[in-house]
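Aim 2, interim progress. The first record below pairs a target sequence with its structure tokens.
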Amino acid sequence: MEKILIVEDEKNMNEVLRILLEGEGYEVASAFDGYEGMELIKKDIYDLVITDIKMPGVDGFGILKNVKEIAPDTIVVMITAFGTTESAIEAMKLGAYDYIDKPFKIDEIRLIVKKAIEKKKLSTEVRLLKDKVETSYRFENIIGKSDKMQQLLSSLPKIARSLSNVLIMGESGSGKELIAHAIHDLSPRAEKDFVTINCAAFPEGLLESELFGHMRGSFTGAVNNKQGLFEIADRGSIFLDEIAEMPMALQSKLLRVIEDGTFRRVGGVTDIKVDARIISATNKNLRQLTGERLFREDLFYRLNVIPVNLPPLRERKDDIPLLIDHFLHKYGRSSVKIDNSSMHALSNHEWRGNVRELENIIERIVTLADGEVISRDILPPEILHTSEPATVNPELGTGIDLDKVLEELEKAYLLKALDTANGVKNEAAKMLNISFRSFRHRLSKYGIK
């Protein structure tokens, strides 16, 4: 529901406008002088302000100036009595959208207000489009023919239709935002906004302002009223990347949004109602963090209604040739071919940075390549090093202790898996294709803590 503020000192006129606009379905607030109007503008964000020009104290020009300073995206329409048209035209030069002559016609007001609201919506949509990353997030652009990716992709339409909160878990660079955008695009909310924020990219105070907005003067640098991302995502979706990095104090505020759909801007005094689907993502084990009291358990269960596990690139190596072809097209080198030796090296690399690392490597390769064929001599050293097959060439002499050699090899793989999984035993066990119980037993066997 669009919000309109009427600033008019004539009570009858104020009341007529309020009844008319409420009848059109708008949420309307009234101020009966300029000072009251300025206070309301400081406390809330309006889509449209309709103000009389001639008022004692703060006049319509003062209101216009105040709106442009505090909420520059708000549309202002001026009301002018007969004989003050020149003043209204001057107001338009200063940034007013239009003016209404007294006495006015009901249909004229309806039309002006409708066009003003449409202009506000259009300007908001243009601003959001400029803020979006240029990458296309269409569902069909998710690359993957491996069994794990096909299973994930086949579940996305059902997940999208449910409208429940989604938690995407996967390593850095594996494409969590791409999956989140696909869920939004396939959902009934696809026509509304999809807004994103990286919770690790902002300090606590600024993160709260980004999520929930703020009022002018609420902190140093808050020179304007600002809408938060939750307001922008109303009836759409909001993607909270790196949700594990959200400070505990903000986690409680996020929990309130999930439970009753309300929040307050920083420095605000009124509750704002919002309906936004939350899609969050993390590369950490949130369940483990809840046990360590580093993440709220109640919030975890609210976010983890539908869990989505995105496999790392090393677990879907069948997709690597497809991804390489995709990135060659992206960087304008679709004619370049990868020879068999180089493809083997790329396919057998560990790819700890996942798809993001692969894209960076392909971009580097096509930039440095002179010909139309990529051979091993142009591959980065780290790719060649990890792609070499393990060799065993022991000095047998009078014999070796084979059991001891195998134990050392097993211990090395246990430590490597733990390091790769950042100490998460469940994940490390999966990498070695053994049960958690067996993994824990082997750690105990070698005294690994």
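The second target in this work package is listed in the same format:
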Amino acid sequence: MGHVVTLVALLAFAGPDKAEGHSPSPRLERTFSLGDVRGPVDKTGVAGRIDHMTYDTATKRLFIACVANGTLEVIDLDKGTHAGTIAGLRGPQGVAVSGRSVYVTTGDDGLLHPFDTRTLVAGTPVAVGDDADNVRVARDGTIWVSFGGNGPGGLASFEGSTLARIKTFNLPRMPEGFQLHSTRAAIFANLPAGKRSAADGSVIGLKRPDGERLWERTFSGRAGNFPMSLDSANDRLFIVTRKPARLISMSARDGAILGEVACPPESDDLFFDARSGLVAVIGGGSLPTLNDPGGAGASLDLFAIDGLGRPSRLCGSPLPPHSRTGTLVADRQRIYVAVPMTRDRPAEVREYRLPD
């Protein structure tokens, strides 16, 4: 099946307001078909699961890591067309752009791959560690990658142009989400007890470049803290836990919990939008079970953050089941959500406009 873009005209879904008045929900504007993106059912029970994505401001391209399909898919947002596929990747998971390179991690072989953002020509990959996952680029061009699998984990840094390994911060568990402070020499990481553990998770703050521990905060009765976002200007971290599904606001200075609120289940991405001051949570809904396909509660929800850092839900737009990853493109005022295939519908990427 080919790749097409569909224009969609929908009225915004007005979700319940728990702050002040009513706020327009994210509005679906376009869908980009990923008809060739398939893949088997993975350990979560989701078929054709899609992982993270990123946007390149220079080429206006979206790069999507299709973990089950073993591909990196490329969409040209200006043209509204599919711009290419990089195939043969062993479990692509994390993806980030720096300069003319897009960096992709592959969890099955623990590698970090560089590709040219325009030609998609491959550079030489480097070893990271088991289950190489999320990728972040520091302001100085250093590439940071999380790794660890089911055992001890860590964060590895690489020189941007050569991918020479600079440093490794060893941690007791794999960081499932991490962020780099934009103005301070700090790095923050989510350390859940395990990928499907119901035990309490924790968040750790480290100093760059030596890895000195700044603070650590263990949650009480909160497990599965995977995605993380950061408001550097106000020194606030935003964490989502899965058991139960909660959006938690924390101080990036000392790890103090500022507030929390219920959010969509099974989130793997959330974003802080500095323009509006809102937090967006992408939740894929409940996981499949033996007699239930799952997906209940899938939604793209927006949250306001008050002056004390406390979150409150403003509104939301329902999503297809298991759509739990995406990216915020702030200069377009859009959020892009990855939607995996079903028996009745091919995989796609949905473009949502944020409220003005």
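The CA atoms of residues 149 and 229 lie 22 Å apart. This observation will shape the mutagenesis plan for the next reporting period.
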